Write a sequence for this structure.
């Protein structure tokens, strides 16, 4: 017997454990009788026992990123709160200035904690994610970042990041890195963010494109982000 979750088939027992990880309350009447006896699956079990990539992806979605993080002993690397002012439109259509604070946290997860006992699953370097709030829903978001790329984006003299010294990258550098553009550095007038939609206005009409994409720097994120919602 199979259970289908997000168009992916799982063995019945495994499917029940995935549903228990995903739902606080029993989602189907036929599971009600033994719902309390089901043990929700853990990330380590997903990583070690589910080999199919699509099945693994669906299983991790069921587990949820916050439960995953709770299992893997994240280490706080950097934290900073930024005070911001932005322009919002109220219910009457009037423009209003709004002040708020954004807190960003950068965490490191050691590879041995994340992938212990798992073969053929990513590389050997430690893993980093930045935690931030969605300004419109107030929900927390966790975004994985590539530390070498974060470091190279913000350092011209030395382009090599030593994972033994994680203090070389910051939470603001990490959140800036999550935004990409094809406009050359120094040619951006302003940046507007509405959820996942990023609008970047160049400060000139010619010569701004670099025929590739790059990540934003910390300096650009601090100085050019003028409105968020």
């Amino acid at each position: 017997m199979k259970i289908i979750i997000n168009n992916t088939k799982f063995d019945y027992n495994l499917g029940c454990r995935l549903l228990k990880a995903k739902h606080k309350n029993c989602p189907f009447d036929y599971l009600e009788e033994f719902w309390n006896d089901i043990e929700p699956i853990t990330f380590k079990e997903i990583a070690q026992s589910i080999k199919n990539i699509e099945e693994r992806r669906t299983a991790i979605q069921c587990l949820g990123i916050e439960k995953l993080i709770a299992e893997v002993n994240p280490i706080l690397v950097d934290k900073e709160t930024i005070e911001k002012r932005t322009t919002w439109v109220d219910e009457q259509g009037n423009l209003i200035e709004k002040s708020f604070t954004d807190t960003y946290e950068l965490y490191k997860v050691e590879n041995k904690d994340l992938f212990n006992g798992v073969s053929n699953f990513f590389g050997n370097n430690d893993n980093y994610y930045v935690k931030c709030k969605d300004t419109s829903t107030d929900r927390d978001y966790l975004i994985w970042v590539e530390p070498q790329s974060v470091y190279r984006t913000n350092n011209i003299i030395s382009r090599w990041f030593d994972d033994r010294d994680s203090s070389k990258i910051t939470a603001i550098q990490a959140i800036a890195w999550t935004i990409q553009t094809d406009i050359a550095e120094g040619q951006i007038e302003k940046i507007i963010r509405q959820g996942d939609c990023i609008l970047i206005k160049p400060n000139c009409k010619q010569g701004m494109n670099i025929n590739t994409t790059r990540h934003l720097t910390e300096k650009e994120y601090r100085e050019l982000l003028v409105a968020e919602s």
Notes: The longest helix spans residues 12-22. Residues 151 and 157 are 11 Å apart (CA to CA).
